[in-house]
Every structure is written in structure tokens, then in C-alpha cells.
Design goal:
Blueprint lengths: L8 H9 L5 E6 L1 E14 L6 E14 H10 L3 E9 L2 H12 L7 E4 L6 E8 L6 E8 L8 H11 L7 E6 L7 H14 L3 E5 L11 E2 L3 H8 L7 H15 L3 E5 L5 E4 L6 E3 L13 H14 L4 H15 L10 H14 L1
Parallel strand pairs: 1-4, 1-8, 2-6, 4-5, 8-9, 9-10, 10-11
Antiparallel strand pairs: 2-3, 6-7, 11-12, 12-13
């Protein structure tokens, strides 16, 4: 198989510059990431648990909404299409989207739907970094006959605005039926733009996309295998996904082991992790990766170029606390500094 030459720093920076104004339709499960902060006071007399003095609560755009947010901070123009509940968390997410300059015209409201919430409780001493102690998931599912889902389908079918790419973010909360996914894929094909997917639990159900960006554990669950540190199993899994999903690229993220890009007819590209291995927080890193990867493809990048930029973005965001984003300036600086050391 033919080796692919790696791009120069100038080429990668030009691609990042081309992010600005790229419109990406994002069909997504929209999630509220809630962070509760406290200080450890003492051990409870009622049970062997810690008592925390409550300090505050922070709510951020999570799940597919985090991918939307990253597209915005990288200079793109996300067009989110999804469903929120009529509850307080749904209202907070709508407000956060509006505050970041993101249109919510494609976000439908279902009063009977409870907005998914991932609540993380973090605690520490007065002068120490707070660490996550427990996570509580309010994992709801959109009702089968929800009128909001029909509104999302109508939005996809009636889309007349320019679209440079389509990103599907599936967290398993019941929005993404096969009919909706096919409508999104059909839109991408008609517009001749790339379509990508990040799916937590249904990876094999997404065929005909341009690319997929699963993490290693999602690949293992989908194929019923264990990869571990076995390079041959990783190679076999990547090639199997290319065949079964009929995609042009499969980017498997591997945590501290970096990423592996698979393309038909080309040797596997192993990308080492960018930055230090002293990771601060991996919350939402996969959203940053697919947002950067898809924006790059929409800007005319090859899968190799898109993977390298996604790797830089992932390395930046895991050094930040909580659900975080990456800016175009940060991405360009990472490219420059990494190539200067090479």
C-alpha cells in the first residue's frame, strides 16, 4: 500500500484558517454537563462517606452540544438539529447556545422529554485541585412518537441553507432513528459534502458515511473483541470497520496511545498523542476530536490532515478542566510548536 506523505505546518495552518465560516449541520443528542463543586469537610457519622461544603454549580454544553460548541470556537458555523426538553436544563442549554452565537432554529422542544444530564460531583481541599468523586447520569430517551423528532426530520428534509459538512453525534438517547440518519446522509450526498459520525452504542448501524471516529472501547463493544495492546487486532478491527461501514476513513482514538487512521488501500497511520501524558480531564474530548476532524474535511483536508489536526485538538482539550473547547488560535499554536520541535 502506498505511503501518504505528512503535511507541512504551513499546510495545516492554512486548513485551520479555512475553518472560518464553514457551515456544519450537526444532528445530535444534546446533553447538559453539570458540575457540582464542594470542599471536603469531614467524614459523616451516618455512613462512611465524605461531607462536602457546597461551593457552586456550573452547567456546560455537553454531548453533541459540546461538538457544536467546539465547531463554533474553532471558527465554524454549526447548525444544530436536535431535541431538548421543556425543563430547566433544556432552557439552560438553549440559553448557552444562544450566548455563544449559535442558531437554535433547528432545535425542537418536547415538553414530555427530560433533557439528558450528566452530573459530576467534584471535591477537594481549600488549596487543592478538585477531583471528580462521582457521576450521576439522568439517562432518558426521547419517546417513540415524539412530535419533536418529526420536526427534526422536517428540518433535515427542508434544509435550504448552504452546508459544508454533516456531523452526527449519537449518545444513545433515542433521537437518531434510521430514518433521521438516512435523511442526514442523503443531505450530505446531495450537497456532495463529508458526513461523519460519533456513536456511543450503535456504531455498526451507520453505513454510507464519509468517516467514523470511534474510540477503542466503542470498537471493541461493536465488534465483540478485545484489542488491548495487540497491534494485529487493532489493524484487523480498523480494516473490518472500513469494509462493514463502507466509509472512506476510520479514525480510532486510543487515549494515551494516540490515534490510528485507516483508509482503504493505504497503510495505517499511527498518530502519537500530542502534548503531555499528564491529562487533566478527558470529559468531552471525543466531541472536540470529531468537531475538528469534520471541520477539516469540510475545509478540503485529506483524512490524514484532518486526523493530525484532530489529534492536536484532543491533546489541547484534555489539559483543561471539565467540558472544554479549543480555539483556532490554540490549534495553530500547537501545530507551530510541534513542528518546531520536530
Amino acid at each position: 500500500m502506498k505511503e501518504t506523505p505528512l503535511p507541512s505546518a504551513d499546510r495545516l495552518r492554512r486548513i485551520v484558517g479555512s475553518f472560518r465560516g464553514r457551515r456544519l449541520l450537526v444532528l445530535a443528542d444534546l446533553v447538559a454537563d453539570e458540575f457540582l463543586y464542594g470542599r471536603v469537610q469531614r467524614v459523616s457519622r451516618e455512613a462512611p462517606v465524605l461531607i462536602l461544603q457546597y461551593d457552586g454549580t456550573d452547567i456546560r454544553l455537553g454531548g453533541g452540544a459540546n461538538a457544536v460548541h467546539n465547531i463554533r470556537t474553532l471558527g465554524g458555523m454549526p447548525v444544530p438539529v436536535g431535541v431538548l426538553g421543556g425543563d430547566d436544563h433544556g432552557r439552560r442549554l438553549r440559553g448557552l447556545l444562544r450566548d455563544t452565537g449559535i442558531s437554535i432554529r433547528g432545535v425542537a422542544i418536547d415538553p414530555a422529554y427530560v433533557t439528558p444530564v450528566k452530573t459530576r460531583i467534584l471535591a477537594g481541599g481549600v488549596h487543592s485541585t478538585k477531583q471528580q468523586m462521582v457521576r450521576i447520569d439522568k439517562a432518558t430517551r426521547l419517546p417513540e412518537r415524539s412530535a419533536a423528532r418529526r420536526a427534526v426530520l422536517a428540518s433535515l428534509r427542508s434544509m435550504r441553507e448552504r452546508v459544508d459538512g454533516v456531523l452526527v453525534s449519537d449518545y444513545g438517547f433515542g433521537l437518531l432513528t434510521s430514518e433521521l440518519v438516512q435523511a442526514a446522509v442523503g443531505l450530505a450526498r446531495r450537497r456532495r459534502v463529508p458526513a461523519t459520525v460519533d456513536s456511543r452504542f450503535a456504531l455498526l448501524g451507520f453505513r454510507g458515511m464519509t468517516a467514523v471516529t470511534p474510540n477503542e472501547s466503542e470498537v471493541e463493544a461493536a465488534l465483540g473483541i478485545t484489542i488491548g495492546n495487540d497491534g494485529r487486532r487493532l489493524e484487523s478491527a480498523g480494516r473490518m470497520l472500513l469494509r462493514r461501514l463502507r466509509v472512506k476513513a476510520c479514525l480510532i482514538t486510543r487515549g494515551s496511545d494516540g490515534m490510528a487512521l485507516f483508509e482503504p488501500g493505504r497503510p495505517t497511520l499511527h498518530v502519537p498523542i500530542y502534548g503531555t501524558d499528564q491529562v487533566a480531564d478527558v470529559t468531552g474530548a471525543g466531541d472536540t476530536v470529531i468537531a475538528t476532524f469534520t471541520l477539516a474535511l469540510a475545509a478540503g483536508a485529506t483524512p490524514v490532515e484532518a486526523s493530525l489536526l484532530a489529534n492536536y485538538a484532543g491533546g489541547i482539550v484534555v489539559m483543561k478542566r471539565g467540558t472544554a473547547t479549543v480555539s483556532a488560535a490554540e490549534l495553530e499554536a500547537a501545530v507551530a510548536s510541534d513542528h518546531a520541535r520536530a
